[in-house]
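Example 9 (inverse folding). The structure is encoded as follows.
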């Protein structure tokens, strides 16, 4: 059987999750009448310590709604140069919201408050682009699943408060940060105006993310979601998968983290630099390693000439990791 380490998005809904989906009570969510969607939105908002939630089809949509609530056309959002919103959302913030980005460099995605301080330009006057918001990512995907250092996050939030900037959190894998550190989810979101979390990554739901914010911002986001054509009707079938994921698949993320650390160590990386479920390796020819592994039914992502990414998830067990190591170790060693 193929061992798919390309992403934690490749999981398939389990039998229990499918049962929960089939049994979901539903209604028309555009009318706000889907009880399962409403319950999921309330559950996630409460877990994250914000007032309200909005169920959306993807993490990209959650981020893009968040960004557009915080910045006007012609304003900028600042983030790190490897942030998913800057690298992997196909320019959506520019295309849909007229927002530009400026970026700071962050080794392994790790936040440095001084880099943010040096970059922001609130109220930049009539010639320069004004910064409206700061966006952070936790955990950091292209940084290798790194957890944003709490002290740096607190410093950046204080900076935003002092300068009148707003804060967005791309928390696609915030669950992983919570499990890895033991920090309460509501503590990880404190000080952010908008937060997007995904149910379809480590938690294993087939579809769905939730944007959380104040009730006023979520009311606005609901209008924009519909305007984008992304209002869904009996979406409770999908929301039920999210509820099931939160109830059954959250604590077990620790297993994914252990397996990622084991992979890292076996492939010559530093397990200390792998706090969650994403392994990044620097190899001479990432595409060649990925192609050779594919021939032996192990799938990994080559995200740059030297950038190999492996992601553990709930459809992989210890035996799968052993087999992946057997295939990958000689390939990575010979690639150097
Ligand atoms: C950090 C991060 N944010 C946002 C997204 C976007 O999620 P989606 O693929 O559901 O649009 C991803 C997807 O992998 C991600 O890794």
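The amino acid assigned to each position is listed next.
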């Amino acid at each position: 059987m193929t061992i798919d380490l390309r992403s934690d998005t490749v999981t398939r809904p389990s039998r229990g999750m499918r049962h929960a989906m089939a049994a979901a009570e539903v209604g028309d969510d555009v009318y706000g009448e889907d009880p399962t969607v409403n319950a999921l939105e309330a559950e996630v908002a409460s877990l994250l310590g914000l007032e309200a939630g909005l169920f959306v089809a993807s993490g990209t949509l959650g981020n893009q709604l968040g960004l557009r609530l915080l910045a006007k056309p012609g304003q900028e959002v600042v983030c790190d140069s490897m942030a998913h919103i800057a690298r992997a959302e196909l320019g959506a913030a520019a295309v849909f919201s007229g927002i530009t980005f400026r970026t700071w460099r962050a080794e392994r995605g790790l936040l440095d408050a001084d880099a943010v301080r040096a970059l922001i330009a609130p109220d930049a006057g009539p010639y320069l682009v004004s910064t409206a918001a700061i966006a952070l990512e936790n955990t950091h995907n292209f940084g290798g699943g790194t957890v944003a250092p709490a002290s740096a996050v607190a410093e950046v939030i204080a900076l935003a408060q002092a300068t009148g900037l707003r804060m967005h959190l791309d928390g696609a894998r915030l669950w992983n940060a919570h499990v890895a550190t033991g920090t309460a989810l509501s503590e990880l979101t404190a000080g952010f105006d908008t937060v997007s979390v995904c149910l379809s990554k480590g938690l294993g739901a087939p579809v769905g993310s939730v944007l959380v914010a104040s009730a006023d911002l979520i009311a606005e986001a609901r209008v924009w979601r519909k305007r984008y054509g992304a209002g869904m009707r009996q979406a409770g079938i999908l929301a039920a998968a999210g509820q099931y994921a939160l109830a059954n698949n959250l604590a077990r993320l620790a297993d994914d983290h252990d397996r990622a650390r084991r992979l890292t160590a076996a492939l010559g990386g530093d397990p200390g630099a792998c706090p969650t479920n994403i392994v990044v390796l620097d190899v001479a020819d990432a595409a060649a390693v990925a192609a050779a592994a594919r021939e032996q039914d192990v799938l990994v992502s080559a995200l740059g000439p030297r950038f190999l990414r492996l992601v553990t998830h709930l459809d992989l067990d210890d035996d799968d990791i052993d087999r992946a190591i057997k295939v990958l170790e000689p390939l990575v060693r010979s690639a150097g």
